Amino acid sequence: MLNVLGTPVVEADRVTVAIAGRPVLRGVDVTIREGEFVALLGANGSGKSTLVRALTGLRPLTSGRVRLFGTPLHDFREHARIGFVPQRATAAGGVPASVREVVASGRLTRRTPLRPASRADRRAVQDALELVGLADRAHEGVSTLSGGQQQRVLIARALAGDPELFFLDEPTAGVDLPNQQALAGALRTLSERGATVVLVAHELGPMEPLVDRAVVMRDGRVAYDGAPLSLDAVHGHHHPFETTHDHAPHVGSPLDRLEGGR
Amino acid sequence: MSLLDLLALDFMQRAMLAALLTGLAAPAIGTFLVQRRLALLGDGIGHVAVTGVALGLLTGTSPTWTAVVVAILGAVAIEVIREQGHTNGDVALALLFYGGLAGGVLVTGLAGQGAASLQAYLFGSVTSISGADVWFTLGLAVVVLAVTLGLLPQLFAVASDPDFAQVAGVRVRAYNLLVAVLAAVTVTVAMRTVGLLLVSALMVVPVAASQQLARSFRATIVGAMAVGGGAAVAGLLISAALSLLPSRPTVAPGPAIVLLALAMFAATWPLGVWLRHRRRVLAPFAAEEPVRHEPADIHPHQHGDDCGHPAVQHGDHVDYVHDGHRHAPHGEHYDEH
Ligand SMILES: [Zn+2]
Ligand SMILES: [Zn+2]
Ligand SMILES: [Zn+2]
Ligand SMILES: [Zn+2]
């Protein structure tokens, strides 16, 4: 395995989640290490989104344990280290909001209530907008953007808090190919900076070359955990272990971080 | 007595100050209610507060104080019911609303007071505002404004995306309760000018008017405060001016204020419809390549800057929307995109 020596960032230990009495996750064990780019794959209803909600504390565990950066989830307070990109439905509310306003709320993990935004806060928002290529749309209403652009806004919001660990819940669902490519570009930059990425996806598309490791969920359990497979294998057809790992060697990435890391 | 004489009166000046602050505070908190699609929360709290007023009349304490306490209790109850997400949450809220209104009327009767004394609280009344009431209103309105605007980033995050806010460490439940309590305080503040039955309108209608034109949350809240403050002061003046007519009609300020706010909505709404239509027509097409090269049929018309067809960005060029087709210039002809 790659990154065997990395510090565990996310540890899920026999995680079980029941929703309205029905078990949705059953005894899930996953450990994600610093710098990994993990794709959580699976069909609808396989539990992949529920797993991310359990790992971020949005969904209470029925049993089992979750640790983030070595701290039990219950005691975890370093919210600035986590960037969360929820499914897109939640982007627009009943009142107009500008792209910059939405992205700026990603900075709340580092801001003190009742204090105005500092120069560093505004800088971080601007950088995040530039990384996703929406700096020129900052003053427009979020609801006037296309679905793919709204998704990029949500990624910029997570970026603005300058986190080390990203959870992205289906960022490519319903997004056109050019926007998927823009998303993949932003995630590549993050990954190269040393961030750990946990990506829930139905299909990887342009993200595929970024993925170090695939965790395939089926019916609430981990069905496969290892090097990424081709999509056919994910969906349970033939040739299960044909690991074509053709992208840049990842043995280099821990060393890269020694000099260029945060 | 002329309107100017009226304006020189102490109680009238107090009433105008109270109306201005009410008109600013109600839409400020109302913006968050509209964002969370809880536009009728203020209405529910208003109904519950009627019982509070009645308890004040019955016990001989200031109805303003009893209304604040009961309104806050009601708002917290509504928020708890909402958060529990019961499927019959609607019905539970309705029970609270009607219980509050019926209880209020009943208790007022027990207190030996007629409908007239309650009417002043239901639809507002300038003349009933005492000096002490004004300071109370001022104080509460300033608190509501300071907290709402000071915590705007947090309240915005919680109202627009609670899941994200929670993962970011913002205490979603505490902020939702804070909004409910602020809404309750606002209801009590507005009780003297717009009255309990119309207070929700002052929380919601200015926001509806403002969001027709605004593109950002901040612009919406500022615009709504301008509409609310303007409508409240002007509505109060209209109600005072009408009382000077020879027939001496008594028009409560509440209805005048609300009708003015509605008029402002009616003025901005067509503009908003037009802006949204324009934005939709000119929204860029997905930057996908055309499936194949397909020249348009015989095409005598020349598309250009002001040819009358919307020019919509498509990747690195524009498509002209023409009779349901998308025509992109290509050399001497147009392509179907
Ligand atoms: Zn034309
Ligand atoms: Zn085109
Ligand atoms: Zn044409
Ligand atoms: Zn052509």
Automatic annotation (TrEMBL), chain A:
A GO term, aspect molecular function: ATP hydrolysis activity
Disordered as annotated region, ranges: 235-262
* Basic and acidic residues bias spans: 239-249
Q: Which UniProt keywords apply?
A: ATP-binding, Nucleotide-binding, Transport
Q: Where is the ABC transporter domain?
A: 10-244
From the UniProt record, list the coiled-coil ranges.
Answer: none
Top-level taxon of the source organism: Bacteria
Q: Which CDD domains match?
A: ABC_Metallic_Cations
Indicate the family of this protein.
Answer: Belongs to the ABC transporter superfamily.
Q: Which PANTHER family would you find in this protein's record?
A: IRON TRANSPORT SYSTEM ATP-BINDING PROTEIN HI_0361-RELATED (PTHR42734:SF5), METAL TRANSPORT SYSTEM ATP-BINDING PROTEIN TM_0124-RELATED (PTHR42734)
Q: What is this protein called?
A: ABC transporter
Q: Which organism is it from?
A: Nocardioides gansuensis
From TrEMBL, chain B:
CDD domains for the chain: TM_ABC_iron-siderophores_like (cd06550)
Record-level GO BP terms:
response to zinc ion; transmembrane transport
Domain of life from the UniProt record:
Bacteria
**UniProt keywords, alphabetically:** Membrane, Transmembrane, Transmembrane helix, Transport
| Segments of this protein annotated with the region Disordered | 295-337
The record lists the lineage as: Bacteria, Bacillati, Actinomycetota, Actinomycetes, Propionibacteriales
Report the protein name in the record: Metal ABC transporter
Its record classes its membrane topology as: Multi-pass membrane protein
SUPFAM superfamilies tied to this protein: ABC transporter involved in vitamin B12 uptake, BtuC
- The reply to whether Transmembrane figures as a keyword in the UniProt entry is yes
Q: Which organism is it from?
A: Nocardioides gansuensis
Please provide one cellular component term from the Gene Ontology annotations of this protein: ATP-binding cassette (ABC) transporter complex
